Amino acid sequence: MDSAELQISIHHRFGQVKFLETALTHSSFANEQDGFDDNERLEFLGDAVLELCISEEGFRRFPSAAEGQLTRIRSQLVKERSLAAIARSLKLDRYIRLGRGEELQGGRERDALLADAFEAVMGAVFLDGGFEAAKGSILAIFEDLWPLETMLPEAKDYKSRLQEVAQERFRDRPIYVLAGTSGPEHEKIFKVDVTLPEGEVFRGTSTSVKRAEQESAKIALDYLCDE
Amino acid sequence: MDSAELQISIHHRFGQVKFLETALTHSSFANEQDGFDDNERLEFLGDAVLELCISEEGFRRFPSAAEGQLTRIRSQLVKERSLAAIARSLKLDRYIRLGRGEELQGGRERDALLADAFEAVMGAVFLDGGFEAAKGSILAIFEDLWPLETMLPEAKDYKSRLQEVAQERFRDRPIYVLAGTSGPEHEKIFKVDVTLPEGEVFRGTSTSVKRAEQESAKIALDYLCDE
Q1: Which residue in A145, B5, B31, B84 could disulfide with B111, CB within 3.0 to 4.6 Å?
Q2: Total number of domains constituting chain A
Q3: In this structure, are B25 and B122 located in the same domain?
């Protein structure tokens, strides 16, 4: 396999080209031929390498983004369709070793197969050159794919976000009720219950009604987004 | 906050203790007091740091484990309950800054809150000392928690694994049928369909019946494990 051009595209010159070759070996090929490892273990590793490098860069690029926003940005960047597009732009499809059955079924064009191979290649860079090498490669490849700070959704106001989510999902709005207070006058604790249109109730507890509302909205959002 | 003992337990001496303090600040505390960042962004980062360090170490410890086994081992190690237990053994609960409302509701004992704080602390180590520092800390903390190689389920034989999964889930076994062949005699391709007890059919294609059976079993396993 002559991978010189590919090594230039991914911004990493391999010390041990064997890692790259394994990253480009689909299981259907390894199953047909003796003596080849497939790329599935490297894909496992590369998935985590990518996740950390993109997380760290998002963390640095968007210092005022909340955790939920960072998670959404990362999901956009590392979803299968995005990775498959990157794989195509790197012409990975030309290098992948496929079994004949998989080839006949059009495997070389499949998003899942291409995304997996890209992850495996990043795993190979990590094994070959360590974390900093993988980070350099990944940041260069993703350089033009980051959203602009100005396109980020508003941070941190959970009540507004819950309002939007509820409108979108239920065509109705959440209702907040002060459920009680406790503690002495100078350090009173407020409990607010928010009820979603379908009847679920979530309680926020804090040192003001406003903060308790935000807390309850946050818990409700976590619930809705985990479903 | 005097965190000297904690820094010893996590095997990292902080250059910038501010990172550690933020990692130990729950959002309920930051919401009540001005001038404190909460630990949610660090938790986002730490989750990915942990994932990569555990993935890499699993990859190295179990050179013959298949990707699916590595995934299962990692899930066991980084699931909420495991991380909460680690947080308790590091006495993180004593250091976490909680809001009063959360405190009254027993937040300091909650698995989710403790696991998040542990992830945030690992994110802080990564920011403070870089990847190698975080890896050192994580490997030391997890040292005694890895399974033994001999306890790993058998690698790679997809037919046997599908058999087990089908017995367990459906109390019945999958059925393999040779669905056809194609190609010239000297490079014939075999298609095998495996039918699960509930009727789903998955096709494997390869250069021998045996390999095509393995392929079909693998696809069926992927399907069952993704549900």
Answers
A1: B84
A2: 2
A3: yes
Residue A100 contacts residue A32 (beta carbons within 8 Å): yes
Residue A59 and residue B52: Cβ atoms within 8 Å? no
Mark whether B195 and B85 lie in a shared domain. Answer: no
Answer yes or no: are the C-beta atoms of B166 and B197 closer than 8 Å: yes
Q: Tell whether B127 and B164 lie within a shared domain.
A: no
Query: CB distance B211–A32 less than 8 Å?
Result: yes
C-alpha span between A5 and A60 (Å, rounded):
31
Domain interval for residue A204: 158-226
In this prediction, does ipTM exceed 0.85?
no
Annotation marks residue B119 as catalytic: yes
pLDDT in tens, B116-173: 999 999 999 999 999 999 999 999 999 999 988 755 655 557 888 888 888 888 888 9
Q: Please name the residues in contact with B88: beta carbons below 8 A apart, sequence gap of 6 or more.
A: B114
Residue B46's Cα: distance from chain center in Å?
A: 13
Q: Which of B151, B186, B217 is the C-terminal boundary of a domain?
A: B151
